[in-house]
């Protein structure tokens, strides 16, 4: 038989086989290999995350009580640690020292006058008793003694006031603390009422965190906090909870004492966590959660290895796991890895762990369905419907009834035998 008719018969046989294959539906091919995780319930620490400013527990403003006095020296710098009674600065006291000396002289004079008046009153009273002078003279002498005593008391009070004024020229620390601000220099003329130095009392800092009204109700004095810093968390304790909320922001403030502030400084803004106690929580791996359009989803695998997209409500993270508050049963089979590449209704292949790279290339049978299951995404219809291979353009093949196994025809003779093999 001529070669041309043989080739025509071979082509006709191939076309008939392809037509027969179109009648059978292709087998579904898994779109991705995934591993599963089962939600677990275990005890976790309930926490509220908040942000707030680090501030001084109590700031003490230091000034002077004199006006128009020149500063002679400043004994501290910003950051100096002082104790109560330590000298902070000194003022020029020459004028006040002179006034104190005058007051001392007035006291001495008044005391001398009192002694004289006392002796005179004693003599006149003795003469009056002997009827040598009138009683009026005795009473006048005693009145003069009383006036001298009063003038002495006035002089002493004036002297004490002058001494206090002189003592005001030495400014001392009212409490233990740390100097946080200084606005005075030697030679400066200062006035009463102005702030010259500022102290952080006892060096104590506190964290003032803003909480929403729902979270604020869960916090009470004595609750522990952890304030995050670049050097690690700093522990603290809630000292006071604000009794009222801000009318605009609807937030309230908690005040947490930081006994050992470490690297924290007043004026910093820090984030921290407030421990609310321990509770049981349902946890799944973080990578199992897919976030789309502001919502959280997981993919649940059914008995036929098809995935179903399920919306959930998530809570805080706990290490490599995240808390699920609602929307998921404890016995669900959740896709742990590869969830971001799935769609609702996809068929998947479930394994205990992801296959090693190159597993599809090592398949000796060349089975298209197995290679698709061991690799990532493949086209489920093309291997069953078409013919051909990308490895060698000169080779062609046909699909046998959608079974996924292709027979190759590499020569004219093989093509000639194909019709004879068909039923």
UniProtKB/TrEMBL annotation:
Residues 358-398, 405-423 have a biased composition (Low complexity). PROSITE patterns: PROKAR_LIPOPROTEIN. This is Efflux RND transporter periplasmic adaptor subunit. Residues 100-158 form a coiled coil. It comes from the Bacteria. The keyword Coiled coil applies. Residues 282-350 form the YknX-like C-terminal permuted SH3-like domain. Residues 209-275 form the CusB-like beta-barrel domain. Residues 358-423 are annotated as: Disordered. Keywords: Coiled coil, Signal. Gene3D superfamilies: 2.40.30.170, 2.40.420.20, 2.40.50.100, Helix hairpin bin.
């Amino acid at each position: 038989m001529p070669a041309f008719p043989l080739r025509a018969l071979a082509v006709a046989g191939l076309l008939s086989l392809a037509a027969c294959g179109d009648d059978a539906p292709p087998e579904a091919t898994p779109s991705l290999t995934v591993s599963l995780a089962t939600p677990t319930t275990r005890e976790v620490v309930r926490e509220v995350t908040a942000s707030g400013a680090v501030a001084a527990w109590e700031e003490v403003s230091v000034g002077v009580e004199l006006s128009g006095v020149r500063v002679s020296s400043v004994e501290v710098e910003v950051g100096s640690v002082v104790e109560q009674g330590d000298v902070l600065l000194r003022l020029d006291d020459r004028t006040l020292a002179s006034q104190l000396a005058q007051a001392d002289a007035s006291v001495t004079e008044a005391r001398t006058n009192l002694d004289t008046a006392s002796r005179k009153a004693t003599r006149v009273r003795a003469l009056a008793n002997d009827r040598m002078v009138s009683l009026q003279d005795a009473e006048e002498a005693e009145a003069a003694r009383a006036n001298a005593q009063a003038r002495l008391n006035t002089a002493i009070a004036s002297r004490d006031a002058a001494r206090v004024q002189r003592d005001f020229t030495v400014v001392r620390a009212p409490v233990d603390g740390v100097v946080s601000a200084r606005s005075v220099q030697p030679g400066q003329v200062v006035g009463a009422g102005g702030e010259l130095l500022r102290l952080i009392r006892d060096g104590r800092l506190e964290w003032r965190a803003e909480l929403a009204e729902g979270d604020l109700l869960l916090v009470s004095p004595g609750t522990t906090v952890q304030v995050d810093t670049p050097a690690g968390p700093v522990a603290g304790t809630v000292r006071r909870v604000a009794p009222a909320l801000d009318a605009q922001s609807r937030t309230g403030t908690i005040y947490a004492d930081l006994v050992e502030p470490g690297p924290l400084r007043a004026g910093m803004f820090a984030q921290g966590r407030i421990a609310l106690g321990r509770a049981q929580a349902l946890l799944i791996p973080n990578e199992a959660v897919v976030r789309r359009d502001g919502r959280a989803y997981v993919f649940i695998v059914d008995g036929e290895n098809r995935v179903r997209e399920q919306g959930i409500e998530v809570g805080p993270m706990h290490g490599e796991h995240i808390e699920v508050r609602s929307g998921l049963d404890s016995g669900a089979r959740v896709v742990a890895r590869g969830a971001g590449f799935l769609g609702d209704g996809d068929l998947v292949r479930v394994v205990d762990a992801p296959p090693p790279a190159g597993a599809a290339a090592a398949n000796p049978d060349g089975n298209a369905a197995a290679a698709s299951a061991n690799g990532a995404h493949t086209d489920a219809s093309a291997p069953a419907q078409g013919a051909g291979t990308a490895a060698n353009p000169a080779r062609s093949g046909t699909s046998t009834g959608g079974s996924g196994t292709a027979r190759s025809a590499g020569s004219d003779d093989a093509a000639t035998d194909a019709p004879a093999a068909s039923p």
